[in-house]
Amino acid sequence: MPTLSVGRDRLFAALGRVYTQEEFEKLCFEFGIELDDVTTEKAIIRKEKHLEEEGEAEGDEEVIYKIEVAANRYDLLCLEGIARALRIFTGTEATPVFKLSSIPDGSMLQMHVKQETSQIRPYIVCAVLRGVTFDEVRYNSFIDLQDKLHQNICRKRTLVAIGTHDLDTLQGPFSYEALPPQEINFVPLKQERHFTADKLMDFYRSDMKLKKFLHIIENSPEYPVIYDSNRTVLSLPPIINGAHTAITLKTRNVFIECTATDLTKANIVLNTMVAMFSEYCENKFEVEPVEVISYDGSKAIYPDLSCYKMEASISDIVGRIGISLDETQVISLLKKMQLQAEPCPSKGEPRISVSVPPTRSDILHACDLAEDVAIAYGYNNVPKSKPKLMTIGGRQPLNRFSDKIRAEVTRAGYMEVLTFVLTSYEENFDMINRKDDGNKAVIIANPRTSEFEVVRTSLMSCLLKTLKHNIDHPRPIKIFEVGDVVALDTSRDVGASNNRRLAALYCSSNSGFEEIMGLVDRIVKIVRAPHITFGHPYYVETSEPEFFMKRQCKIVTRDGKQVGYLGIVHAEVLRKFGIPDPCTFVEIDLEALL
User: Fold this and answer.
1) Parallel, antiparallel, or unpaired: how do β-strands 340-344 and 539-541 relate?
2) Is the pTM of this model over 0.85?
3) For labelling, which of 45, 93, 355, 443 has a CA lying 20 to 30 Å from the CA of 567?
4) Tens of pLDDT along 529-564?
């Protein structure tokens, strides 16, 4: 859960009253957040610098409240947001109405997007805060909110990167481009000399804060960059802003841009930024829009501060909580949570229409409305009741069956191993002589490492890899794994399905084919499902590329259904894995035996 550090006195001033610590803890509990810690600025500095003496740390003794908030409540990640939410919750302030400035035709700022950006960070959204009044506290809160959003919804700038600029130092219209790094030259924030983008990457490799973001674009042939009409660089997203546009306490007009790989999250981030700090604008809660013109001629105006409507029945809301409320009471409770609602005309059960503001991106379903009503009503006020139905949890049949198989294979002298479900593309296909037909394997679109490129379609490569790393163990080596493989499946809503498998590997100076056959005989013998019967023999010759020809077979039931396969692993496969001794391998579909 994200934790927000705010000065107690500044928070109480924003709330309009002073609380004792006990009173504030109670308020936090009622609102669904938690006062996690009470400390001081000096104590925080002392802890960060590992100082022991009281007098060694600089800073004052201002009391700092550390407040833990829900991960999806981005509007509570700054002093302005949490103070506003608590004021509305306690009824001392009405929910604000955000609006866009009325801009004459032809006067709206424009951002032109070039086609090259589609290959690296395809989206950009922008807005302007006019007539902002900053002081040191507001400025620090403005910067801190950006950092918190970057760590949270922005996923460390991989999905969204925020840039804020002093608009008075710029000249529109702006352009969002992607250029070779050698062609991008500017003075980055907090620096005094020019860098080309490639040199800047080398410069920041030793920077403790920025080096963790370099991987996002450093391997791209072109880097994203934002220019104004004078070719002044605003930023090199998602790495650093330009020094020319740096915001100070004297800044009055702020230009905000968010570049992204996810347009929905970019809109949420932009809405959060402008909604929190538009209260300091000359026209309170008013934001100036920016027109974004794409390379294909399409146009869009940001930010979108409109409220969206959702309908829900009263029973869907209060039924989940276990209380009885009418429409008026539900509407009143939702109002405390910044949600405006009104009754909906309906012939059946009562329904309400809820207007969700741009700050509440966490409201997606009637379940979310029920949670907010429960918070506003008070969890401690929900009457206790005994459940109408007594149920006892139990294990899934597949897991019970898997454990019985594990026990049986262990009794046969095999050692269980546990490997990753993700593996490399080469190990899953090429190293076991298999071809990828494109219709089976789930490929990871943006793997963090070459070791995790594909979801395994067989347990074979995982056991061979385990054997490779334990090749010095005394022979014979007998290992097994019971685990899931994943394959593409258009009949599933997620497009893929899991399948539980048993795999065993025998490695010694001889192939050990009879050892694996003995294990299969035992498994065939103990399977007691009435719909599963095996003939004599239960194996049929097959020709899989990972095994020697005429040294392999598939395991079939009496009706001819294949449930597994086994064979002596091909010498070429063993060579690729660096295994010098012959091996025999079996893999069985456990779900087919259940």
Assistant:
1) unpaired
2) no
3) 443
4) 777 777 778 888 888 899 999 899 998 888 888 899
